[in-house]
């Protein structure tokens, strides 16, 4: 990063300043470090929101800049969560099993400990043997590597098959949606090796951190989420600011012309698709330890559609717009669906926002698409242009 990068992208400096102030403010007002104005549960909500902002950046990169409307990126998000969730659940269960067998008359063998862990984890689906996909579940290093490798390899293979066949437009969107649906349906099966509908739970219990209060752990994850968002934003801004960014914008606007000029359109698409899948996987790995649970419903096709709606409302083709859209919709969703929004009594009917939130979100998407295609980010663009004109 040199000065010319920031000079060409002043919004990056604004973003860094806003994120830094936000992180500092939340930290000082948290139960762990400050006055306790912000509860631990809300710190976790904010941390999860930062992770959603990160995957929104990935979505904006692949859709807003490269023109690939992927309706499957939440699958990569979920896979990242499953990879880190396997280690969290294994390590936590191992601690419980070892403690319970500590007073046995005959010390248990390593195989007996492993069998007991398998019974604890898979007993709920009527099994006890570890599937092959759990081969590295006892290694944090390997599972962290899989957070990147599994979503990346899936995106690489899927993208290679789709782009080499020159599947584009709505057909590609349907294909990514089908991939997500197939993965979700597979994970719902009990013999998938990931506990089927039960998913992985207890992820908020970090092995080795039993003596650290949840208020402090929530701040640690909040910091990690803020750092990941910062690095993801810088990476995305760097990718779209140079010649590479010009090419992928050209692919978005006129793919045939870019191909005619001699660029490997499929190669560029594959790189962006894979890179954004990796970013989504990292976001998921930070999100689910704060959520405490992950199950196949989290990666259902509707989740990826919500992701596209967030980016559209924030303003696609603007990284800060994706962040604004994800943060706004995510926090409003928590407020409306959490029962905190007051119901409206019309006399003949009471509007309960828990039921009507999705309708409101759908109307917002339609209105933004029809009357403000640049989204909330477009308003910032207008204010900046107005300020420059004076």
Concise synopsis of the structure shown:
The longest helix has 28 residues, at 73-100.
Q: What form results from the Cα inertia axes? A: globular
Could you say which structural class the secondary elements and strand pairing correspond to? mainly alpha
For the secondary structure, the number of strands is 4
Report Rg: 23 Å
How many helical stretches?
15
The run of helices and strands is HHHHHHHEHHHHEHHEEHH
Strand order of the largest sheet: 1-2
* Beta-strand content bin: under 5%
Q: What does this protein structure show overall?
A:
A two-stranded antiparallel sheet has the order 1-2. Strands 3-4 form a two-stranded antiparallel ribbon. The chain contains 15 helices and four strands. The chain is mainly alpha-helical and 390 residues long.
């Amino acid at each position: 990063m040199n000065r010319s990068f920031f000079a060409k992208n002043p919004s990056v400096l604004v973003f860094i300043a806003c994120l830094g102030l936000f992180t500092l403010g939340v930290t000082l007002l948290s139960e762990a470090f400050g006055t306790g104005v912000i509860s631990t549960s809300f710190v976790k909500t904010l941390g999860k929101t930062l992770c959603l902002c990160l995957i929104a950046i990935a979505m904006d990169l692949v859709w807003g800049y490269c023109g690939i409307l992927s309706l499957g990126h939440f699958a990569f998000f979920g896979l990242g969560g499953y990879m880190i969730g396997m280690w969290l659940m294994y390590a936590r269960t191992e601690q419980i099993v070892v403690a319970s067998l500590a007073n046995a008359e005959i010390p248990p063998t390593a195989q007996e400990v492993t069998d007991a862990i398998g019974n604890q984890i898979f007993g709920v689906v009527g099994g006890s043997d570890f599937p092959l996909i759990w081969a590295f579940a006892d290694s944090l290093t390997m599972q962290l590597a899989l957070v990147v490798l599994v979503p990346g390899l899936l995106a690489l293979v899927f993208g290679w098959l789709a782009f080499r066949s020159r599947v584009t437009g709505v057909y590609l969107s349907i294909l990514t949606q089908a991939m997500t649906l197939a993965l979700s349906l597979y994970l719902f099966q009990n013999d998938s090796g990931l506990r089927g509908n039960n998913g992985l739970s207890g992820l908020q219990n970090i092995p080795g951190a039993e003596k650290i209060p949840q208020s402090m752990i929530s701040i640690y994850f909040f910091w990690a989420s803020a750092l990941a968002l910062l690095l993801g934003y810088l990476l995305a801004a760097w990718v779209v600011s140079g010649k590479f960014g010009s090419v992928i914008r050209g692919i978005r606007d006129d793919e045939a012309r870019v191909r005619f000029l001699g660029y490997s359109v499929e190669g560029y698409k594959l790189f962006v698709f894979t890179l954004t899948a990796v970013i989504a996987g990292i976001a998921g790995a930070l999100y689910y330890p704060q959520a405490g649970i992950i199950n196949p419903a989290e990666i259902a096709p509707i989740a990826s559609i919500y992701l596209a709606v967030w980016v559209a409302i924030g303003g696609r083709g603007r990284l800060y717009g994706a962040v604004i859209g994800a943060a706004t919709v995510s926090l409003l969703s928590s407020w409306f669906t959490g029962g905190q929004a007051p119901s409206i009594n019309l006399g003949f009917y009471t509007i309960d926002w828990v039921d009507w939130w999705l309708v409101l979100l759908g109307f917002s998407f339609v209105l933004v698409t029809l009357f403000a295609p640049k989204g909330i980010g477009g308003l910032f663009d207008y204010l900046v242009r107005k300020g420059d004109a004076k």
